[in-house]
Amino acid sequence: MSASLEVKLLGKDYRVTCEPEERSQLLAAAALLDAKLHEAGDRMPTGARGSGERMAVMVALNLAHELLAMQSTPEHLAATLESESIQRRIDFIEAKLDESLAQHEQLF
Predict the structure, then answer these.
(1) Model confidence pTM above 0.90
(2) Strand locations in the chain, DSSP E?
(3) Assuming Cys at both sites, which of 27, 40, 46, 89 could form a disulfide with 95, CB separation 3.0 to 4.6 Å?
């Protein structure tokens, strides 16, 4: 049965639906995307930060490019997957901590 999950991207909350067994992967994906969006925002000139849609499209394009590049080079894939796996775990732990803190704050 699908469940609702709230993720935060660029400081905005989004509610998405996912299967319970996909929850941790979705949280990690949201953390990765949020980090990439922040990186892209930091690289943009101050006056060019107005279009969140453009930034999201560029981040999506870069992620798709990285995915295709990884799929085309098996030796690069193994090294990249290991470091990305570690980063996803860190992002997941951070997301779980944020979620726990938010729940704790609601109790008080």
Answers:
(1) no
(2) 3-9, 12-18
(3) 27
Q: Are 71 and 63 in contact (CB under 8 A)?
A: no
Distance, first Cα to last Cα, the chain: 31
Please count the helices (runs of H) and the strands (runs of E) in the chain: 3, 2
Which phi and psi angles does 78 have, rounded to 5°? -60, -45
Instruction: For residue 20, give the DSSP letter.
Output: G
Q: How many CB atoms lie within 10 A of CB 34?
A: 20
pLDDT tens-digit profile of 3-43?
888 998 888 899 999 898 998 889 888 898 988 888 888 87
* Token output for 37: 């969006």
